[in-house]
């Protein structure tokens, strides 16, 4: 052994700046780090498996993708190769848009990725508030909000029956005077708390509702809670007027990604929902979508790849099939999908609450996604199973998501949010902005400023299509329907079961005859949901706007316009916005809503019979 030579070599290396002691130390540190990283990943995988055992197989799915299968498999490989899941966790905004300013805006909208963990520590205070309100004699909680501030609360309110000791939650997201009057008949104002929910703090409809109910309670601040971002005018108003509570939501969460933040959880808590169970399942899904899980086994990434590859194959109509107990989840998903992807002439078109039909009434532009809950005597599954089997055999891609129990909605909210984020990466869409939403708002403000539209007219009137009769005008619109289109019914009337039934009959008649997807949206709610897609997405929409007159109007305290005038201005503003974008649209105004819907239904029925 040449020890002296080795010692001389070390001295020579040191002379040229190479410290072998440091090199050896660094190698030891790097080796330990590699070992630690491997252990951390192993421990995370074990924790994920434990969560899945605790809550069932969260994220489980079955799929009959047919011709889409190879493209989805290839896409998942590309997502793995490009480390997309890890980059999402690291909040790499360049995944969606490579632009300095836009990247910063995107990073400021990614707080939903950790929201389940962040909100866990807030559960005790929310439960304490719910108990306090009930003990003081309150029995109703009314959410005053639009879009992301109202849709998740509605899912909770419709899915979970309030237990003893909880409040009944109502959602007010319409400016229709008849709907506001109906709500007042349903609640005891003195025994109600009002949740004024607006991320921006400036939502016109929400502030109008707030001013109205503030007046109805004679300014009893103890009946009001605010949910908003820090520093908004609403936060200031709540402090000045002494609201009972103000919840400042994390500002890095966008409206349609806010289901598991204060915007969803405060109403859920007041309604007696098990927040721990809800967030536990959300956390399980969050970890199932982490970089420690292979992309092909990541429930959110897998679904996002299916969405994107379906759209690339021309199957851009994402049809959500849900049992009655979860049907409002489809309305929540509608906003998430439409407002996130419907821009730059691109976008997925969500179809919610459209009754399933036989294969022959569908074109080849559909993807069916079914939520599967555990079957029970009150939740039969067989009917939709048989129909989806027939659709799959006819070549339509069918996905079935295993939901388990209703608390698994926490997991589903996260799965779908993650899926849409991944779909945006694949399709090259920034899913965190909504560039066309403001247009209808600006046109509404212009209408209100220039002249108040009348709330009552004579009989039935229409605009936007040629025709000396209503039948001729509707026929003119429907003649323009082409394969691959969707027909959207935009109804500025009170949401209620009778109107639901009438509008559903109209949409199914159109779907079955023209083999196109159909949607129904109540105005102005849809402006905060699918409105972005209508103006910013592909020009494949055909729009039938139905506007009811407001014979019994309601004043808005402190405003020069009433709820009826506001509703009419919103309908007219959106009609003008659609026309400005070259959309095919017919506006029908009816004095008597019930009779008007009958006549429109008869006209559509006659047209499809002879078409």
How would you characterize this protein structure?
This protein has 23 helices and 15 strands. 49% of the residues lie in helices and 14% in strands. It is globular, with a radius of gyration of 27 Å. The strands form three sheets. A five-stranded mixed β-sheet has the order 1-10-9-7-8, sandwiched between helices. It has a five-stranded parallel β-sheet with strand order 3-2-4-5-6, with helices on both faces. It has helices at residues 3-15, 20-55, 69-81, 84-89, 100-107, 115-120, 123-135, 151-159, 177-186, 204-216, 233-241, 262-270, 275-288, 299-312, 327-341, 382-393, 409-427, 437-450, 470-478, 497-514, 531-536, 563-580, 593-610, and strands spanning 61-64, 140-144, 168-172, 192-197, 224-228, 245-248, 317-321, 349-352, 366-373, 398-404, 460-463, 486-492, 517-522, 541-548, 584-590. It is of the alpha/beta class and 611 residues long. The longest helix is centred in the N-terminal third of the chain and has 36 residues, at 20-55. The mean pLDDT is 94.
Looking at this protein, list some descriptive labels:
611 residues, Rossmann fold, five-stranded mixed beta sheet
Structural class: alpha/beta
Overall strand count = 15
Count of the domains? 4
Strand content: 5-15%
What would the CATH topology of the largest domain be?
Rossmann fold
**First-to-last CA distance:** 99 Å
> What CATH architecture label of the largest domain applies?
3-Layer(aba) Sandwich
The CATH superfamily of the largest domain is known as: Glucose-6-phosphate isomerase like protein, domain 1
Number of helices: 23
The helix content is 40-55%
CATH class of the largest domain: Alpha Beta
Unreliable residue stretches:
none
Largest sheet: 5 strands, mixed
Order of strands, widest sheet: 1-10-9-7-8
Rounded to the nearest angstrom, the radius of gyration is 27 Å
What's the rounded overall pLDDT mean?
94
């Amino acid at each position: 052994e040449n020890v002296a030579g080795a010692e001389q070599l070390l001295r020579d290396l040191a002379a040229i700046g190479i410290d072998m002691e440091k090199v050896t130390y660094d190698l030891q540190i790097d080796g330990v780090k590699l070992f630690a990283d491997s252990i951390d990943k192993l421990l995370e995988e074990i924790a994920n498996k434990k969560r899945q055992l605790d809550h069932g197989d969260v994220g489980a799915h079955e799929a009959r993708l047919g011709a889409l299968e190879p493209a989805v498999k290839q896409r998942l490989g590309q997502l793995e190769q490009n480390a997309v899941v890890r980059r999402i966790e690291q909040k790499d905004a360049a995944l969606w848009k490579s632009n300095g300013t836009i990247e910063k805006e995107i990073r400021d909208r990614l707080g939903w990725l950790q929201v389940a963990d962040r909100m866990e520590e807030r559960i005790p205070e929310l439960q304490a508030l719910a108990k306090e309100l009930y003990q003081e004699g309150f029995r109703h909680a009314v959410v005053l909000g639009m879009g992301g501030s109202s849709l998740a609360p509605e899912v909770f309110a419709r899915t979970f029956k309030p237990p003893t000791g909880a409040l009944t939650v109502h959602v007010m997201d319409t400016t229709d005077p008849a709907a506001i009057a109906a709500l007042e008949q349903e609640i005891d104002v003195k025994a109600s708390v009002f949740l004024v929910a607006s991320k921006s703090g400036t939502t016109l409809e929400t502030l109008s509702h707030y001013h109205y109910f503030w007046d109805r309670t004679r300014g009893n601040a103890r009946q009001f809670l605010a949910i908003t971002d820090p520093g908004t005018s609403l936060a200031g108003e709540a402090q000045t007027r002494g609201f009972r509570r103000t919840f400042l939501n994390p500002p890095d969460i966008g409206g349609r990604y806010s289901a598991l933040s204060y915007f969803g959880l405060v109403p859920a808590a007041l309604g007696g929902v098990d927040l721990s169970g809800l967030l536990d399942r959300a956390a399980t899904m969050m970890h199932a979508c982490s970089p420690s899980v292979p992309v092909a086994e990541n429930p959110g990434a897998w679904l996002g790849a299916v969405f994107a590859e379906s759209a690339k194959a021309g199957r851009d109509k994402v049809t959500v099939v849900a049992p009655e107990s979860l049907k409002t989840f489809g309305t929540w998903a509608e906003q998430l999908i439409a407002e996130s992807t419907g821009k730059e002439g691109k976008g997925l078109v969500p179809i919610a609450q459209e009754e399933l039909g036989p294969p022959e009434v569908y074109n080849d532009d559909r993807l069916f996604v079914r939520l599967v809950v555990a079957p029970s005597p009150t939740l039969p599954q067989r009917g939709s199973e048989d129909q989806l089997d027939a659709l799959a055999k006819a070549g339509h891609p069918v996905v079935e998501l295993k939901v388990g129990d209703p608390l698994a909605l926490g997991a589903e909210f996260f799965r779908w949010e993650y899926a849409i984020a991944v779909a945006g990466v694949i399709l090259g869409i920034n899913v965190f902005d909504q560039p066309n939403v403001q247009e209808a708002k600006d046109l509404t403000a212009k209408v209100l400023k220039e002249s108040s539209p009348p709330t009552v007219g004579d009989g039935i009137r229409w605009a936007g299509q040629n025709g000396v009769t209503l039948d001729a005008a509707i026929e003119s619109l429907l003649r323009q329907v082409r394969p691959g289109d969707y027909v959207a019914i935009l109804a500025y009337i009170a949401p209620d079961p009778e109107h639901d039934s009438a509008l559903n009959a109209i949409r199914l008649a159109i779907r079955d005859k023209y083999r196109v997807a159909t949607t129904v949206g109540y105005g102005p709610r849809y402006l905060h949901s699918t409105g972005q897609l209508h103006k910013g997405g592909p020009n494949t929409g055909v729009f039938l706007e139905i506007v009811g007159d407001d014979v019994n109007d309601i004043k808005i305290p402190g405003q020069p316009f009433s709820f009826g005038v506001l509703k009419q201005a919103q309908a007219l503003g959106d009609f003008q916005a659609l026309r400005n974008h070259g959309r095919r649209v017919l506006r029908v105004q009816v004095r008597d809503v019930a009779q008007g819907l009958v006549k429109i239904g008869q006209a559509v029925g006659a047209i499809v019979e002879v078409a």
